[in-house]
Amino acid sequence: MTEPVLDVRGVSKRFPGVLALDDVSLTVAPGEVHALVGENGAGKSTLIKILTGVYRPDAGQVHYLGQPVGFGRPLDAQAAGISTIYQEVNLVPLMSVARNLFLGREPRGRFGLIDTARMNREAGEVLARFGITVDPRLPLHSLGLGAQQMVALARAVAVDAKVVIMDEPTSSLEPREVETLFRVVRELSGRGIAIIYVSHRLDELYQLCDRVTVLRDGRRVHTGELAQLDRLSLISLMLGRDVADVRRHGLTGFSAHDAGDVEPILRVRDLTVRHQLHGVSFDVRPGEVTGLGGLLGSGRSETAKAVVGALGADGGTVDMAGRRLKRRTPAGAIRAGMAMLPEDRKAEGIIPGLSVRENIVLAALPRLSRFGVVSRARQDRVVETFMKRLRIKAASPEQKVSELSGGNQQKVLLARWLCLNPRLLLLDEPTRGIDVGAKAEVQALIDELAAEGLAVVLISSDLEELVEGADRIVVLRAGAVVGELSGDDVTEDNIMAALAQEAAHD
Question: Name one Pfam family in it (predicted).
Fold first, then answer.
């Protein structure tokens, strides 16, 4: 057997009140693509942070290239040849694409100054290998989230890496970019570079990975060949439930519901944003889940943001509960009974330095105050109610929200808006980057809210989730509506057919 490039032996890590890792072992061979899976909070992120020098283990040891190592900081791990691509883009938005690619290893010319022309030229060559056609002189923040993720990928593998850790690398990518990523992974594997691949998208794992390690509650519960595990068995290992139980409850938390002929609570007509949306129209009824379908860049998120006033519109109308919203602003949308869960929970949602309690009550503070004084007792009642209802796992309401798993952070954001008792909830990628267990819980909650009469707009790049969860789907392409599906017509094939028909038209 090939000597492992990375050998984790009996690693444990404890935080106040939590045993995050308990005697975890992992080996990865050169050229192997090794899946690391588990629910949010299972210990995946903690293990990655130990491998990359963010944390030091309390027990156990990490061997790299046959030698025991203890990196003191991420830069040391990167210098040794361990690169990481994080789910949330971990680059400098205001710097150029080229500067981000070469950050810390910029080419130098005379007098030690950065050779900008050479850096831009070499950056263009690196980007071209990944199918990224952008000007390397542009600031990173001017690119879409998917393009930024591809830049992060290019940066991670451009260094002389021997191990590349990929944490949910496809969560922001469109299908064409996913294909490029898969090609790069296979190329890296062929060159003998070890890959640790973390993803909640099981189809990806079965396409790419050789072996799998399953973590649950901080312990390793399985390591073996992925091809020997079917999908249901893998999920049952992650959840700690019998295969029969998983099969009985299904893989999503959705069930059918019918809004009937109820009058729409939201009417959107000819919504237009220059260069982004072109005459978008649709209705949403109470008790109904309306999906916005389409590829990344189709205008799904822009539509939701324009409805709530977070993106300025050049034309069109939005009526909420029979009332025309003339000057649309996020504050006005909230007053009208709308609430929106953004796609990027870290950049646009949670406030990481605040506690779980503070994040939940943030939007409700005006309603919880009397004469300008906020009642702590009323805050505590609201927080306790929603932490129980959404099953938010935290040491206490005073724990920093940044310390929670991705799934629990998403639930905190949902709690923030639900405590306002909205009449319309717009959810942009509500299950992005969370595990199958938390995903089913969020889906079941969406289902429950719709059954209680809440109108829901669901945006998802996961076609299975969209088809299972939506009663109607409005299909978008290039910022325009190209089809609307309902009833038995809501299928993945019909969504793709609508997109393909319009593409042929173009």
Answer: ABC_tran
Same domain for 70 and 11: yes
Looking at the structure, do residues 443 and 333 belong to the same domain, yes or no? yes
> Alpha-carbon distance 488 to 14, whole Å?
50
* DSSP H or E segment with residue 33: strand 33-37
Residue 426's DSSP bridge partners are 340, 457
Of 8, 4, 9, the C-alpha closest to 66 is: 4
CA dihedral in degrees (460, 465, 466, 471; nearest 10)? -140
4-8, 236-240, 392-396, 457-461 — which one is most confidently predicted on average? 4-8
How far is the C-alpha of 177 from the C-alpha of 198, rounded, in Å? 17
The verdict on residue 243 lying in a domain is yes
- Pull the structure tokens for residue 408: 């629990």
Please tell me the distance from the alpha carbon of residue 198 to that of residue 243, in angstroms, as a whole number: 22
167 in the same domain as 53: yes
**Under 8 Å CB-to-CB from 45, ≥6 apart: which residues?**
167, 405
Owning domain of residue 375: 347-421
**CA dist., res. 222 & res. 293, Å (int):** 36
- Exposure of 60 by Cβ count < 10 A (0-12 exposed, 13-18 middle, 19+ buried)? middle
Average pLDDT over residues 231-244: 79
Residue for token digits 């496809």? 170
Tell me the pLDDT tens digit for each residue of 131-172: 778 889 999 888 876 677 778 878 877 777 899 998 888 876
Q: How far apart are CA 365 and CA 149, in angstroms?
A: 35
